Queue: 4 jobs
Job 1
Amino acid sequence: MVSSSDLKQIAPCEWEIPDSYRSDMRVPVRLFASPELLNEVTRDKSLEQAVNAACLVGLVGPVLVMPDMHQGYGFPIGGVAATRYPQGVVSPGGIGYDINCGVRLLASQIPYQEARSRLDDLATALNSFCPSGVGTGGHLKLSEAQVKEICRKGSSWAKSAGYAAEQDLRRTEDRGQLPGADPRHLSPRALKRGSGQVGSLGSGNHFLEIDLVEKIFDDQAARAMGLEKDSLALQIHCGSRGLGHQVCSDYVKSMQSAVIRYGLVLPDRELVCAPMDSPEGEAYLSAMACAANYAFANRQVLSFHAREAFESVLAGKVANWDLNLVYDVAHNIGKIETHRISGEKVQVCVHRKGATRAFGPGASELPPEYQSIGQPVLVPGSMGTSSWVLRGTEQAMQRSLGSCCHGAGRVMSRSQAKKRIWGEDLRRDLEGRGITIKAGSLAGLAEEAPEAYKDVDQVVETVIQAGIAAPVARLKPLVVING
Amino acid sequence: MNTLTRGFEEVAHTADLEIKAWGENLNDLFISAVEGMFHLSGIDEYEEGISDVNETIALEAMDYEGLLILFLEELLYRLTEDYMLFKVRKLKVSDNFSLKANLRGIQIKSYQRDIKAVTYHRLNIQETDQGYFVNIVFDI
């Protein structure tokens, strides 16, 4: 077990586990954490998991861990690792089962004061237009050919089917369409699971949330993003549903033998991987792109339904009920990117497992309106607490592979949370604070209680202090729909 | 644990769900793991015998751990796609890393929790004097 004495402080909020810590490490581990958060991360196995990730073949630069880190499986949640493309490995478990789980933020010009009396109606409408909960699929029933089309085209499919506008694509990572997606690399089961779930939220920690833009820290950036103080905004958090889970399961299974074939020795079988230029590696990257595109399309169709819900409640009641996409970020994904690492410009596959891309100003991947401010970085808080809109910085490009935290990060297991917190009490408490809750189940609600998570403000303070993101706005929750 | 019974218990995990399963032999260990997984799905209770089915499945893998994951994944897929809860009637794990299982499938109306996947994280079936043990982490 890694303890705090194994960590070397290299900056006020940056710590290193040297590669001498364990003989099978190929690179060091660097973590971003305030001294307070550091105490919490040494309590579970997240650092040991980061050390395991540092044993992968072809790593370039240290394995990074964000301050919202916590124990996962294989990689820690909050882990970022770059492997040289194409000789290095790609690890499906290092990206996760919910491929391209991500979050998007939509801004509005709806004044809170005018919408205040209609928040209950908005909650009911959102709940009815946007399917959510265990085992609940979307409104669309798709043929296998349509699922394949979605996997190839992602948000571009959504645009041609009338669910997206050009601005939605421009403000989504990779325009919502990862290249190289070939559905021939998907199993029949993956395709079958994709037939009924586009436009559905799922369950667990997936949510829809109406927020109030409570405070602006950076006027120029907020203006570019369309965020106005005291207006409403909407967040959508979900991923690639059963199709993505099946892709990851299929490839974690098939790579169990690939590691033997390629002579790769690993400290944990969940880290199985294959060189990206091997048939197995190429097939996985292509299948992962399919699942990522499915997730982009999923969030886009949910946005369409959310816009319908807002229109049904607010049309004729407020001047402008449009919801404009600020940005859509993936936080479980592998991306082929070019970074300058140890002075060398190198093409790598950046595994982000519970971490958000956070490119700084001038990155060619950003749309024109974000060129001067950097990429919007969305950090949802736990239920009932603030969420943050940040922006990527030049420092992030130099120190964190253009990456940042993705949320608050859990500290308490689900069973502990359920034992300590009653869903009904939590609902009453949140409603007492003016937050309307719609939840699939009260037990599920208790599992997502704010006490089960770190303080998101501390996490955000850490990344700001470390310089890998800068604050733009803070959002306060008004309506939470928990799958 | 002194008696050679089979069973499972939930183990604390920060974000996902983990069970420890045990059994006198591999057959019992696999049955315990199946029961543990369906327990985590939140379907301990169900209506008896509306449309029960009888199924036999055969699987093979590279090792016992891989076989266990394959078996659990198969039943998880049937749960999420077909809303079927399975009870093991008879199960035989063979030493060539294959299994044959006779199952009773029970149609259910709903379940409480989506399990995204059965992971290989730190998966290691341990044989002790008291029987077989394994910890399994489920992504949820």
Note: Chain B has a mean pLDDT of 93.
Job 2
Amino acid sequence: MTHHSPDPEDLLRQVEAGERYEARGSFKVFLGYASGVGKSARMFDEARRRKERGEDVVVGATQPVISHEVQELLQKLEVVPLKTLDEMQVMDVELILKRHPQVCVVDGLAFHNHPRSYHMARWQDVEELLEAGISILASINLQYIDEYKEKVEKITGKHVVDAVPLEFLKSAGEIEVVDVPPGMTFQHAGEIPEDAAAQQQKLAKLREMALLLTADIVDHQLELYMQRHGVEQLWGTQERILVYVKAGVDARQMIESGHRNAERFRGELYVVNVRQREPSSRVNSVLQDNLHFARTIGAQIETLEEEDWTAAVLRFAHEHRITQIFVHHSRNERWIERIFGSGIDRLIQAAEGIDVRVFPQ
Amino acid sequence: MSESGGRGHLKLLLGYAAGVGKTYRTLDEAQKLKQQGVDVVIGYFEPHSRQATIEMTQGLEMVPRRKVLYRGSQFEEMDTAAILRRRPQVCVVDEFAHTNVPGSERTKRWEDVRVLLDNGIDVLTNMNVQHLESLNDAVWQVSGVRVRETVPDWVVKEADEVVMVDLPPQALLNRLRRGVVYPQEKAMQALENFFKEPTLVTLRELALRQTAHEVDVRHEPPKDAGGASSPRLHSQPGSSGGKRESPDRLLIHVTTDPSTAALIRRGKRMADFLDAECFAVFVNTASGLHSLPADERQTVERHLNFARNLQIETRILEGEDVAGTLVSFARRQGITQIFLVRTRQRNLPALFGRNLVQQIVWLARDMQVTIVAEHRRP
């Protein structure tokens, strides 16, 4: 971490981040990858422990079906009953606001409300409670996150209507992933029937998604923390690959390689070029081919405006916490490079904390 | 399970710091297995005088530890021989990364665990992500702590299942302040050193990503064509059943440079993720290792040994021209990527001769050359 000379914009962001941090109630989410992994029990158990330590805890909402384990925990907690509107049960926000506990437990964050309710969905009720300074413990399954709905449906074949925006979950100060592998722990290969094996594979895919989503949210929190404290992070916990595309050079193989790396590491891929002054039509068409290919594989594309490509690439790399830079070899050295060193030499020397991979051209 | 005669199964619970609840969760699982009628014993358990954890051992059989005398003090280690005699179905082994006291039969606890597995006993164990060999440099950079007790990645790969024991850092810090994790005085020290919020957040992210990767490689459908996909759920360790065809072959250039260990870790992690073969090569400019100065020879041997422990194939080449010898070996072996450390030498204009990195980059124009970053503490 290094300390910066303060930039007014950064300072403002810091102050804002600090204020947001203090006024709201704190928000903790238990994330499961499928139903039945025990996230509700984990949440209510935490509520019980907090109550035993003297925090003022109430249960604001439960799910229609309650497991035996959860039932036992609920008996040790104060429950604000759900409100019934036309046979539909919704969280009684008014009553909770009046009761104003320190902590409110909300199971089933994605449930929708009655048309006559003030908010359309339960997560919006939660937002209101948070704004009122009440801390929230909530639980949700991966499939009820808006941005993940489709992906999960592709795996499970189950369609889900209610969903919570990811942005809202990212606002949680704490997120805990409930990672319990499915099925029996110890089984010998021969004992798993074919369909059960396929089922396990699906669940494993969901597990991986939940773990990676949590990692992304944690990463986001780290950034916020760094903003609040005015420090810059110099290390990368996630692989972030920058492919520098030089003018007039076919970079398809290098971009492909960057893509494969990013895929394997579940990392990010940036394809970066530096704007040319008056490029020839050939140079331009090669560049367009490169960028088109980069786009089709889902890379993030960036055009930098700077004379000195090494300086531009390095600055971008540090800003985006890049861990690997991919560049092409220079085919022919010009005499000036022979004497003063090429751009690649300079890049290698200056790329502190970043791997540089030089590709054949 | 032993009646089937196969190797035991290994389940590893992965955390990111002391106090996240690894031991508790391990014992909880053991209790559940016992309720299901499984014959489970505790082979090793570290109480850390945590009450809730100690209570979790109630009703579970404990195999007494072995007492070891070392330099006049008495230590207690897991009694592997006694567990083998007892032959349970499942054995709980706390702290997978532990180093045994000198004079023990095996150096590392994970080696003891492998013996249990070889004898058909299933093992439930746990460790923190910072003990994973390939993350050693990243962890040092994040925390300032150079973790000495490491577990090679291939050992973790042998586990049938890796599970994340998660706890948000704020909750962990609260536990620490309440004195649940360590006694008050030690807790205060910990808060000032290792247990800083950004450090914990970063380690947690590393653990989440590592677990996701472990889930991915274990449950991925095979890449080869054909309809029926059988998951590699319980592929036998060491079998190449799950090995994806990789076009990559990596070569790591071993030198006396102190950052070589970091280079080897980085190269190996890259090779593992790409399913690529990996070599570590030293080019000796003198004839024969014995003609090197003693300290240099020791350094090189240490580096090559380190590579071998990570299951990397090592070679020593002879040649006066380091870059030329290395690159022509790489070409003969069909290497696609060379991994190097950045030379400390100043970048000289080519007129005055190129430094080693420049020479290798220049000669190996038909391959990818990766110059691995030197990691410094910010």
Note: The two ends of chain B are 50 Å apart (CA to CA).
Job 3
Amino acid sequence: MTQKNRLFGGCVDRAQPMSFRFDGRTYQGYAGDTLASALLANGVRLMGRSCKYHRPRGPLTAGSAEPNAIVELREGARKEPNTRATTAELFEGLVAKSQNRWPSLAFDAMAVNDRLSSFFAAGFYYKTFMWPAAFWEKVYEPIIRKAAGLGSLATDADPDCYDKGFLHCDLLVIGSGPAGLMAALTAARAGAEVIVADEDFMLGGRLNAEVLSIADQGAADWAAATVGALAAMPNVRLMSRTTVIGAFDHGIYGAVERVSDHLAQPAAGKPRQILWRIYSRQSILAAGATERPIAFEENDRPGIMLASALRDYANRWAVTPSQRLAVFTNNDDGHRTAADLYAKGVKIAAVVDVRPDAPTHPDYEVLKGAHVIGTMGRLGLTFVEVRLADGSNRTLECGALGVSGGWNPNVHLASHQRGRPIWAEDIAAFVPGDALPQGMHAAGAAAGVLSTHGALTSGVAAAAKALDALGLNAPNLTVPEAEDAPVNVTPFWHVAGAKRAWLDQQNDVTAKDVKLAHQENFRSVEHLKRYTTLGMATDQGKTSNMGGLAIMAELAGKPIPEVGTTIFRPPYTPTAIGAFAGRSRDEDFRPVRKTPSHTWAEEQGAVFVEVGMWLRAQWFPRPGETTWRQSVDREVLQTRKSVGICDVTTLGKIDVQGADAATFLNKIYCNPFAKVPVGKVRYGLMLREDGIAMDDGTAARFAEDHFVVTTTTANAVSVYRHMEFVRQCLFPDLDVQLISTTEAWAQYSVAGPNARKLLQKVIDAEHDISNEAFPYMACGDISIGGVRGRLFRISFSGELAYEIAVPTRYGDALIRRLVAAGEEFGAVVYGTEALGVMRIEKGHAAGNELNGTTTALNLGMGRMVNKKKDSIGSTLSEREGLNTEDALKLVGFKPVDTSHSVPAGAHLMTKGAPVDAAHDQGYVTSACFSPNLGHAIAIGYLKRGDARLGEVIRLVSPLTGVDHDVEVVSAHFIDPEGERLRV
Amino acid sequence: MSDPLPQMIPLTALGGREARTDTHGPVTLTEVTNTAIASFAARRGAEAPAAKALSAVTALQLPGPGASARGGAFTVFWIGPDQWMVMAPHDTHELLAHDLTAAAPGQASVTEQNDAWCRFDLRGEGLIAVFERLCPINLRAAAPGHATRTSIDHLGCFVLMETQSQITVLGPRSSAGSLHHALLTAMRSAH
Amino acid sequence: MIINHPLLGPRDAAEFTYLGDAALIHRPDWEAPDAVQQFTDYGYLRDNRAGPMRELWFHEQGDRSWLVVTRDTTTHVITSVELASDVARREGRSR
């Protein structure tokens, strides 16, 4: 039997049948169905089990507030747990599985928890798993994790991509019900740029679920016509399947558009979802309202639903969970459900209304002043037990019960900026308060206006307010005729005496739990929430919070508004982490920066390392080399013996120009720059204002008013920012202009005794680079094969060395040219490892030494800080605490037993003294194996280090089990006098 | 004089000998290599004469914040207070920075930017939908000639909108591959 | 957040880098007799108020201007945005 509970009419497309599977069985539904509506059509009410007690559950709602009908949707890598069957659009071949049950949905072994429920009341975890502490990790948590929780995650990586985007509008309309559509139409006619966003795949909101007429049309037809009119306007963007998940500062909204969730899989190149950041000047919250249930004994059986959900299913999807149903209500709206379903041919067992003065109906019974006091049916509702006004009981046979406790406006987004909702007595519900997010107006049911006429009118009024703020004139629009029924509701939250009356069905929180929390003195709503977990499930308590705090208020003897609500936070509905990540995942996590020699280095089989966003060659393995050390040792030895080439493009380069360029550098660097001659380079040390070393580099003077400054690779961005701060905020009248040129030039270091010979082959002959014409620390313009270039005679390796630069487009050609020219010298190309080894051999400080805690004094550059001028950091570097007698000094270390290594990070202890923090003498910052010396070497900071050369000291690293002796030596292991630089 | 060493042959920002072109749906994405670029910042106190000199050499009225001007060989766009970026064909203006320095002696700080940027031109209908997925700039409402720096997938880029169907992106050259991938991904997502 | 750039108009705060109290503009005189004390106060005793606060923001992904943004740190309401160089000059940083 197929679709035995499908009714006539509705908005499904019977010409497009779709088959799908749920828990291994194949069913059929139609295009336009949700998974829940299609299952109900097939007579399936049981769709899941609850989190704690594993109670059998079916859908409570027909939308995104759903606590119960949550399933694992799809299979394999696309499997997504905790998906609401009530919002999952049906597609051909959809596969879903119920969750939280074993071995099957109908028989769940963990349902034994339900029998033990008296042990699992509120606070159970806190009370039970307190002691012993060690048990938590080893015993309790694994058991709880296995037993509790919801669905299971896919273990493969998500195969879909997600996108992010940015939209701008004059007016964002959130929700496309009567208020939203009318507001959008009003604003669009006035010429405003309008975005309408609705979480549903069908625009129209409740108009698609009601049997009403608007302007002599059916409500759904009017909605479709209005949507059509809006779609035709170029200044309107209609976004269905788009949930506005958060309201942020200054009119910014987050919205998730489910681009492909209604398809078996996304089309090629298309994202599954897009997270939009919407910049709005004004917004209208027309997100509608959510019906709330009434708590009564055993009110969680499959088939018991919100009355409005029954109406949704019947009118929009032409579905009923049962051919015979009853309604339990405290307001007139519940009667509408009975009438609509009756009109669809469904039998109405009775309408149970708590109000003695409830309206009657000619065709079915209304039990006035009556309460539902119990239900029956193991896996789905079969009978409802009613206490009549006269105190007698009556049993109603029915497979579904619609429950209506009134409507709660969806105030969430109105409260994301901490504005508190206020209590509206007439509808017994919270409505948005006065402190709305900037530019927001509420309209329709979201504002507590529950009639259709009221919604249409308030949509126009809200749009008029927004247009006024936008400086646009509101058009003259006639509000179409629609019903304007008053709200008749008698607040009624729970049936007295009920023991297991569910409030939060997903987290299994009952009215009794709220009482227990109150009894145990958890009296703030925030405490109540956390103690009982009320409203903490994936549905965030959309159907349960109100009931919980009403009971709380009753117990405390306070009015509801005095108890208040918990804080509303984004996201409005659960959002895939993938949507937040967008395209920034895997290899696209962040951009990659490639050096000009990258292609060449790849051809050479280089091993690359990430340095920030840069990919740099780490070393270049040659045939026969089996370990990285062999490659690095070869690169170091050959560079020092003959010549080596290294791509140093990644160093930051900043062009500093202006009449005051030298004055400016005098501020930036602690050492003086005013007298650097044109054509010369000087090393500079940059301090932070607190006297700590920030960065180091060189400044090459190309003209009186032009320097090219280099920064370390890692600090290029922060140094530029700092320099702009000094220029704009501290010395705004200096004539100096800055711009980064890091990317403009490909730059290679050529180092080693044969460096000049190599370069003389490469650089055009008219440029004299002999030692006399181009001495150590010279700089100037050159050309290479006719291409403009720059040459700097600077050295990081301690060898005779140059850095040669050409426009980046020629970088690939230059490395090939340098390598070819170097062949006769046996030139090597070296990577960052060899670069590091050579700088440690020379005792040059790098990032490990400029680690944010060290001063010029620590670095052995105390005398560089010029006291005759004002530079950033110069004053505070004179502080007493930074200049103590036992200050750390940068020195070298070599192991006494040269077979030992010297790990970076190890600490230094005086021999014979205790090994503890109080006796710490310093630490090793950088270490390597020196192929030139044949043993490990290191540099680091040691108290009074410069006065302790020759001392044998203890090196300890308790973490790695290192404990041996090292000798304190000069940090300059190679060529301490620096003679090689100047030949 | 014969040079036995490998010739100095330039590569494009994407690493090829030839510029790359990709088409998806209505949009064509082209790597543009024939562009010389120089930044031009007026010296303190010489703001007026520097601007006058730049205007004279380019024969353009200098654009204000968020705008560009183009005409003849030149495109000029505003990059900061009293600062502009100037573009011209590389074939004919490789020494653009040098020329601008000479045109405003002592009045401006000019820096060669030829190879600091990779340039991608996007042409076709539906570009706004592509850029909605890339950057927070409101191009839908922007006037032709809009030019601004913003962030595209974490990369600081200039977006120059000649018209809604002609948009140029300048991005950091070392990340040309990542930027190209981002642009292509957005094209595929939008169309 | 949106920062209304005095030259470029409204821009997403994501384009900016935050520094902190705009009092950092008032760098002390290095030749003052109590310069160390003044610099210590300057560096370490900055305000971090709950309420209206003058802050420095850098338009890193924009025109590279430093801005002085007056923002209520409890509500994020921004009441004024100026170029920091203008503020610096007005408040005595001109030579």
Note: The mean pLDDT of chain C is 95.
Job 4
Amino acid sequence: MNIQRVSVLVKKDLKKLIRDPVVLFLIALFPVILTLAFGTSFGALGSSPATYQVGVVNMDSEGLYDHWSQYFIGNLTETKILNIQNYPSNETAQTDLLQGKLQAVLLIPSNFGQSCNSFWNTPTNPSLWTNTTVQLYLDSGSMFATQAVLPIVHQVLAITVYGELPSPSARPIQMSNPSLIQASKITMFDYMAPGIFAYATIFITMTVAQSFAEDRETGLLRRINTTPTTPAEFMTSQAISNMVLALIQVALVFVMAYLVGYHPNGDASSLILAFIIVSVFSLCNVGFGLITATIAKSSGAATGLAFVFIMPQMFLGTFVGLALSPTAKAAGRFVPSYYVTDAITSLLLRGAPISSPTVLLDLAVVSICSIAALLIGIALFSKYGKA
Amino acid sequence: MSDREKTHKAAIVIDNLTKKFEDVTAVDRLSLEIGKGELFGLLGPNGAGKTTIINVLCGLLEPTSGSASVGGYNAQKEPEKVKELIGVCTQETAVFPYLTGRENVQLFGNLYAMPKEALKRNTDELLEKISLTEDADRRVGKYSGGMRRRVNLIMALVHDPEIAFLDEPSVGMDPQSRRAVWDFIRGLKQKGRTVILTTHYMDEAEELCDRVGIIDHGKLIALGSPGQLKDKFGVRNLEEVFIQLTGRRIREGI
């Protein structure tokens, strides 16, 4: 195996990705646009609520001046923008915030009423005030909550404490800087994202089929065949360049998904394994591309024929399959993309560890399918597809 | 001088070669020897079998019967060794349109595992010779047809092969570019390289070739230097030789 040959062929393929607008669109822009579209439709961006779920923990509910905190909570409820839910303890409220049931938690301190009272007793003498702080925790994954809840609470607090008085520059009650809590809120988009990763890679079938058919039409395959380049070197270069391509695709889709509110529930090792699974799956699509190129008479025909492999994988094995009937879902087990989606879902949605039997079984199935598809593709193309 | 070079004076030996595609006989019992350093022309109309002969010599096609050796190596049994020796300029313009002219040439140099320095030197030299230095870093997709043909030619020669197969190298070129390609081919001859040139331009063959073999329906119907063939048939050019042999003009095809 001559590394110089393999490396120069890989570079050539990657240059094609950057320089050929059709390939660039299909491989890079299309998945990104798709992710953006689904993310905004089904994710945190698109599903922004008209009201915000705010949990309130009132630690001043039994004191001498507890009417102040009741008044504050009443005012918060009256805003209509905040849906106030009372919690007996900070722990339960924090749990619901972490699980995505709340966008914010407000902690009213035990000396809240005393502080308000001290202000009204001596409004002009801050040295006699009882100072305190209202704690606010926000879901960092909710863009709207982080932007909207704090100013609303600020405004309601000012009205509650100072009433008709102009808000003084010195205040007995401060709002804490809100703590941003990473909630494990699951949106529809979180369910779809693993399938979108698999979906993006499926289109490698089309680009490989087109590329081989086109190179055959223009005589480039024959020409490369007149050089000392061996079939093993050529196919290795194809495998490497398409794996790199798949990694670029998934990285782009992942970044885009993250920006529009995707919340992966896994650590770095889960993420790395997800990328490995997708890159292995890309080899399967290289195999399907070679089979397509063998059958297709021209590059145009290859584009159409590629859908024979793309459609079942897309409908049965990716995010599209979420909406299918139980029968169709069962049929999904016959397409490799199903196992890619299942593995990534386990890793990044269910939070399964990388040693999880489900994930390892999925990886094994994807690997076997990929090796089989690649070998069949190489054998068929070598025998019938070169001419 | 290696043992192979000592024992094989001929660059190419074709022995009773036949190649059939189902019912069609593309090459019919062809026997031929081409000497080292010779500039040999394979002449014939389109479909005569010229490209099939080259494909067999390059190890791309298995002959139905007979054998062919290139540089002392059997083209079917040792194709990997043959491929180290040869450079092939294909009849179709086989270039990567998304690469620049320079990148196309260097890609093929790398496929022959050329050292970096030699590759750069040869690439620059060849681009200069075919007047493409200024456009070398433009993508080939933006080139004119003639420019692509010229890149197509030097892609086959960047590694300075012992034996060059040039399949219709000047087809589709304007007269000026054709003359430039002719000078280029003469340069190969002067360097002692063996060149097998297929063409249906009789003037090109007369101008360049030491010997020509005229192929019709896969058969070698005449062999000799252009002068010998003209004398033998008492005609002024190779076109007339072909008419005498086949009763039709070469451009009419088979």
Note: The mean pLDDT of chain B is 87.
